[in-house]
Amino acid sequence: MKKERIKALITLLDDPNEEVFSSVENELLKERVDIVPELEEAWENSLDNLFQERIETIIHNIQLQDIFIELKKWLKTDHSNLLQGVYLVCKYQYPELQLSNITDVLSDLKKEIWLQLNEHLTSLEKVRVINHILFDNHKYSRNTNRFLAPENNFISEVLTTRKGNPISLSIIYSLLCNQLGMPVFGVNLPKNFILAFMDESGIVEEGEIVDTSSVMFYINPINKGAVLGRKEIEYFIKQQKLEPKEEYFLPCDNPVIIRRLFNNLVNAYENKGDENKKKEIMHLLTLFKNYEQPK
């Protein structure tokens, strides 16, 4: 749509006729997020409350629509990129967020860890280095006081506050490990979320895991990176009265991780009584309804 036509449509947003407004709104919602600056400029130049409210609603709906489109694209073509997936989750709450806001913090952490690593360290020794920097030096920890807060699922926020939940802390941990060349991946364990440090010989093409014998050990970031064996996971599953499944011991793929973040957000907004945000997240979750983790 030409810029002049967009501006002309925006000027009609204060029309008291609901049919006119609805028609204008539908036309603007056909556009991508690129038109948001035009809408924001119009908002700033107006003192009309109705006009401003309508613009705010349209901007939000365009941004939500854009996330839906980008997530759909990610699922089809780019789901091997976990960082892009978690970035799109963050953009739901922080639409102006830049990817660099996340990558810059991760880069600093990666550099700090890298300076203390060397080729002679064992896998366990490398994990101890990461644990020391993340949990002792930078004080990353469980957000005990606000465990159900939505912010715990937005990685950009967790990197700022250093408070999160099992899955957000695990994502940060695994992203750092992967950037440092360590095969550490998320395990979708119910009522927790942990990591598996893999033997590279057990990983075949496209990251597919052969079997649980490829897991060297597990890491629990919510407990300061405690190292666990299979028996500890089995005990946890029994303690939680869960039906044992092989998937609780193997890395999951990235769409499973993003789906779990969104499920957490549904619960978080329900807990806050925010039905609008809950419905919006459930709309994004429809993209995952036909998704099944490869066997």
From TrEMBL:
InterPro entries membership: SirB1_N
Pfam families reported in the protein's UniProt record: Transglut_core2
Protein SirB1 N-terminal domain boundaries: 103-262
Superkingdom classification of source: Bacteria
Family, per entry: Belongs to the UPF0162 family.
Xref: PANTHER family: F-BOX ONLY PROTEIN 21, SI:DKEY-261L7.2
The protein's name: Transglutaminase family protein
